[in-house]
Amino acid sequence: MDPKTVIEPFRIRMVEPLSFTTPTQRRERLQGAHYNPFLLRSRDITIDLLTDSGTGAMSAAQWAAIMTGDETYAGSESYYQLRDTVHALTGMKHVIPTHQGRSSEHILFSVLGVKGRCVLANTHFDTTRANVEYLGGEAIDLVIEEGLNPRSEHPFKGNIDLARLEHHLQRGGDDVACVLMTVTNNSGGGQPASLENLRAASALAHKYGRPFFLDAARFAENAWFIHEREPGQQQRTPHDIAQEVFSLSDGFTMSAKKDGLVNIGGLLCLNDDATAEGARSLLILTEGYPTYGGLAGRDLAALAVGLQEVTDPQYLKYRIASVRYLHNKLDALGVPLVHPSGGHAVYIDAAALYPHLRPWDLPGVSLCNEIYLEGGVRGVEIGTLMFGRPVDGAHDKPAAMELVRLAFPRRTYSQSHVDWLAEIIADVYQRRDSAPGYRIVRQSPVLRAFTAELEPV
Ligand code: F0G
What we know:
The protein is an alpha/beta fold. The chain has helices at 23-32, 60-67, 77-90, 101-112, 126-134, 162-172, 195-207, 219-229, 238-247, 273-286, 297-309, 313-333, 350-353, 363-375, 384-387, 415-430, and strands at residues 47-48, 94-98, 118-121, 138-141, 176-182, 212-215, 251-255, 266-270, 345-349, 377-378, 380-382, 403-407, 438-442, 453-456.
């Protein structure tokens, strides 16, 4: 017998209660949060799909590692456990821990020197883009055309457009600081890049003498998609595929809060000695000594275990199936989604759902708020609030897409949570014509989505 139901490949022996609110409480709380779900408190949220970052459950083996973490300032054994695990998985010569992904980005782009230069990526994640721009560089997104079309069923919508990449490499010369592939492509719908595309992008970068990096936050999910979808890869394990992907690169940044299966942590890994030396100097200045990089020894120990667990095919099969489960349910209802189902999240196309709202009415924000008001569920807007740009005296320059992301913490919610969630979204879908637009009342000059204050129009 080969059952069709994909089960959680773990059992649960520690639980955390959910909190429930009334519709009146939710209206009050949302108003108090200036209509920006980022400003809500967790006690006012029943199911939190804001992010899959640092929100998952650790395994018994990870908790055990926490208890034996070595808190030595310099030369911690936990560092060496982590270094050896990362080296075995990625082959990288220099393994530098950081407290999370964005500090790896800041250090990497500082050492590469992006000022007056550009970074070429499939799609920069928002902190990645912000770090490039903050350091005086230009972040250029070159995802394939299908990657910007929510309805395209292309299996690898995280691929970079190789022709445009070569054009920029040819024209840019030394002004190209590096090529960066985000796997999976978070801002483009959690869509994977294929092995073929990664190989070709790496070869092109190297042909023009430019370093090739990965933003490897969700490397294991990307490897699973390659295993599942790419011709000829079905016999290979996700671990083996991930090893090859890392071997194509000169280094990577990683938020370990995703596929590291930990609540905090990051990595900056490099092959080049001089770049690594520069990175370690900056690390000591801003994060900590190179054998702990802003983390406690116990965090390093938990990450070493998490990186071994995450490529387990049983885990990845369950992980991707559980996201697809909600995707298929919403698709059956007629909710416009980014297709095909992504790695860590379901993305709703808010522009298609709310045709009466224009980009500067923030349809994604409106949808997030409707979902919260309906059931205390929190998602996140990935649209004009996050990626749009204020323009003097005119409407904001809109983002490429108006999406709402429902991101799944790892090993945290069950199938009945998802069934319940689908009911909430079905109700929001039914009354889609009455969703209000929003306008920004206050915003900060960088990463405004996190703190902006809004009001309905
Ligand atoms: N790169 C990608 C692709 C990410 O998704 C994130 C974080 C980062 C870099 C930055 O890492 O948070 O550890 O500093 N993404 C989270 C999210 C915040 O919700 O998607 P960080």
